[in-house]
């Protein structure tokens, strides 16, 4: 007996079959009929309707449905569950729900109306002369047109053609006779209507002659305007053009489909060869957004990722015949990697006029709340929140990295409570406008500049440790989350004000042969623990790599702004691991896209952002206003108040001699904690607050390493193995240093 196959119409009943086999009198007993199943299947398939190739359709009506059949996979239509899961389109448009966007649109409309009114108002005398010049022509056209209508001259060409035809065809004379009678009736009727019109005209003329001069002038003005309008040439309009529009063509689904087909992407090409016309690719209608461009949501064919389209942005712009700066494809990873969000702007983003920074002339910043940082391709404001987050900025040279850093610091300086630390390691003075409000400021990469920087960063790390103790000792009702709050930052007695540190060309610090490791250690510590204590670090570099942005820093930054970079490594170094694979690719920006980059960490998804462009004179004006705000708040500190940072403690040229002095011959090995205590007693002005970690970093350039040593704590007499230093290693390092320098010590 053959086993049933999935093509059989009904389920096979094995129990009944076994019972039949065991019953000699049953249908499958010794005398049972043997059925050829292959022949039965052939007969059943032959009885199916012609042209039906669907295997699911040869089943009897109401039969079982295979789990992988087309019918089982077909999405239900108009089901309650489908509508419940569907995304509802907002009743009120987004620009009406956003107060700032609505105000911006209204301000633009008001400005547009005032411009047009002033433009045409200034040219009113010119328009008056043009109307007066054209009025006689308008009178002639009116009289001539009325005469043609009165005497039915419109039909004269037809009547003349019939007369000429009647020469060869006498029967056409009857046609002409009928046309003549029709013309006579029209002229008689129109002549009768002309009599009251003429009487009304004479009456109106008499009334105007007897009317006051103002009425006569008004009537004359109306007549000149009307007849001047009638007498205007068709190719010469009365009004000049107040606004020249370069209207961009609307974006259509057909245009997008053909553009995607032109990219030569394998998955798209395969789908088109299978007959896919792209109608199901568009999950929503293409919409107009904020009056700046068109937005299309495209669900690409299965297996095609939107990141492949992002990589071909230049080819996509060519296929759409739009400027490169107008075409902005993005991956909508919130749905799935194959969902493409395409925004096509009316104007090139890098060349379009951008609204001024909202904080340019008025307003303050609360660093616990977002402040304007730039605009997206749709013209919407993109904000930045610096509190509780550190930020890294990266790009190739000349793409707006320093301007972005300065803009972030300008926003911070408008919070009168904040300390601003600005370090311009490029040395060109791009951050010099911030000097009047900076708690610490330095420009340059000379040795004294580096020493100033390391002293300032040590100071900030000490400040961070003080803050952790303050926060730890605060009552739970004042500090429930064990971090700085807006209210706590406003209390001067606690000293928990925001601190924002901007470092341009930070690779100069991290690659320094003497202090590089210490800079890295301090910045890594600040970027990990600083945000909870109100300290924000913003390093910026034009060379994003492992040396310029150490892993401990790049991996722990929350905010990331990446302008144009050249490769995926630099992209992921700034924006985060696997961002390139996810389709967030700053490599797509062109060199003309200055100031445009991906801002990640502020919202749920990275946003293409064009920073507000503020040049140096404008930045100085903002800082002048910020200085006034700080003077009122009594918060002019540090460099802005004329105080400087002593670098004596930084110049550890005598570190080897000092360590040898505190160890002595009787201490061949000592714990690092004991050594720093003795150093502080030896030179309090230099080593006050010196830590074991700082000792390790200070000795590292000399080749002295710490290790496990046996020792005793002089205060507690406790013994054991701890991190320490061997005196012989220090002596060898001192001998080597003196030999290399050719002197008994450094000056």
TrEMBL record:
InterPro entries with a match to the protein in the record: P-loop_NTPase
Membrane-spanning residues? 191-211
UniProt KW Thylakoid keyword? no
Give the Basic and acidic residues compositional bias ranges.
Answer: 1-13
Q: Where is this region: Disordered?
A: 1-69, 706-747
Q: Which SUPFAM superfamilies match?
A: P-loop containing nucleoside triphosphate hydrolases
- Please provide the record's keywords in A-Z order: Membrane, Transmembrane, Transmembrane helix
- Report the protein name in the record: DNA segregation ATPase FtsK/SpoIIIE, S-DNA-T family
Species whose genome carries this gene: Micromonospora tulbaghiae
